[in-house]
Amino acid sequence: MHRRFVTLITAGAAAALVLSGCSAGGTSGGDGDVTLDFSQWWEVELSPGVMRGLMDRFEEEHPGIKVNLISNPYSATVDLQTSAAATGTLADIVAINGASVYDLQDQGAIADLSALMADADFDPAQLVSNDQIDGVTYMVRALNFAYPMYYNTDLLEAAGIDTPPTTWDEFDAAAAAVTDPDKNVYAWSLPINVQSPAGFDSQSWLWSSGDRMLNDRQANFETPEIAEWLEFLKGQYDGGYVTPGAFTQQEQQKVEEFTAGRNAFMIGSLAHIAGIRESNPDLNFSIASVPAKAGESSGIAGASWGLGIAENSEHKDAAWELIQWLVSEDINSELATEATGFPGNIDAVPGFVDGDELYQAAFDVYSNSEFVTELEGLPRALDLNRNLNENLVRLLQGDADVAQTQESLQTYWTDVLSK
């Protein structure tokens, strides 16, 4: 079930994403206790009480260390990241992933974890991946996630659709059949928020078809495959199948639309399963591959829950103790089970698949797909994602045609990636 990820990031490339706290780091109590601020989006996506429960157990096993969780949705965490990094006020521990590690490291905002590992006699070989920038580790992956397609079985059945679509043409027909604006029901959501770019709702359609935005880590937008992908997205938008408000919608709002039964489809991580079941236990849904251009889906979007330590933290050793605990075999297995992700510890085994048809369907999709992380390992990855959204907004608004969109993307991404 494990897939080993190897990401060696050079000076011109790297990545990490969400984090950010609103303090300048943890505090030391008068009795000598250390309080670590831990900024993350995990508590929001896990079932209620799970994250706090883990922290309580850590505190019991590590007397003298307390953990203050700073919890925000993914997009909000990203929004806090830039200002906190620039002002040296990152929380002691920050949840990050593959879209901004390079930028955080380049700012000097996150600490050298290799040195902390060595001081703690921690063997990085026990990790599924050991992401590095110029030979130094700045992020530890706690979990890896796949992003298949969720579908509402009741909405599909009501529209006379027996099986989920596997091709773009089939999806187009299904989208038309399920969309009913009078009932506020739409096929899917396409959050392309420029201020808070997140998720893989647009890119997944390209990757599922075996096509890519990059070739040898350089921009490759002026191809027939990219043109077809952009035309497909515009067709979905112009057809009225996409939930209104795509240009300002955020990732969490997309999940809320699906959970409420107002969307028939959603591209999302498996971490949402528990939350959807908790919020709407009557919702009947399942999981399948993202439809490919001509069937035979071959790629699935991937991301990670990573961990970093703020350079401004006064408690780096204590912060590393928490990270090391979270990626230990037993705890990592438990976290993976709760979040429905793949463990970061190579020996950890999640327990969520056994006996659950929905999880089994999800991992059947994963096991038959290539794990795609095109933006990971790129400088200014968040900025590139933002530029993609900006160009998609212009395309969908009718301010640019497909050819102009391709040219604009090629020019901007080439400039960023050639430096």
Topology record:
Blueprint: E1 8-9, E2 27-28, E3 34-40, H1 42-45, H2 50-61, E4 65-71, H3 74-87, E5 93-96, H4 101-106, H5 113-119, E6 132-133, E7 136-137, E8 140-147, E9 149-152, H6 153-158, H7 168-178, H8 203-208, E10 214-215, E11 218-219, H9 224-238, H10 251-259, E12 265-267, H11 272-279, E13 285-288, E14 299-309, H12 316-326, H13 329-339, E15 342-343, H14 357-367, E16 370-372, H15 381-397, H16 402-417
Parallel strand pairs: 1-6, 3-4, 3-5, 14-16
Antiparallel strand pairs: 2-3, 5-14, 6-7, 8-14, 8-15, 9-12, 9-13, 10-11
Helix pairs in contact: 9-16, 10-11, 15-16
Walkthrough of the structure:
The chain is 39% helix and 16% strand. It has 2 domains: 8-145 and 303-359, 3-Layer(aba) Sandwich (D-Maltodextrin-Binding Protein, domain 2), CATH 3.40.190; 146-301 and 373-417, Periplasmic binding protein-like II (D-Maltodextrin-Binding Protein, domain 2, 3-Layer(aba) Sandwich), CATH 3.40.190. Strands 2, 3, 4, 5, 8, 14, 15 and 16 form an 8-stranded mixed sheet that branches. A 3-stranded mixed sheet has the order 1-6-7, with no helix packed on it. Strands 12-9-13 form a 3-stranded antiparallel sheet. The two termini are 38 Å apart. With 419 residues, it is α/β, with parallel strands linked by helices. Residues 1-24 have low confidence and may be disordered. It is built from 16 helices and 16 strands. It is globular. Residues 1-24 form the signal peptide. It holds the Pfam family SBP_bac_1. InterPro entries: Bact_solute-bd_prot1 (IPR050490), SBP (IPR006059).
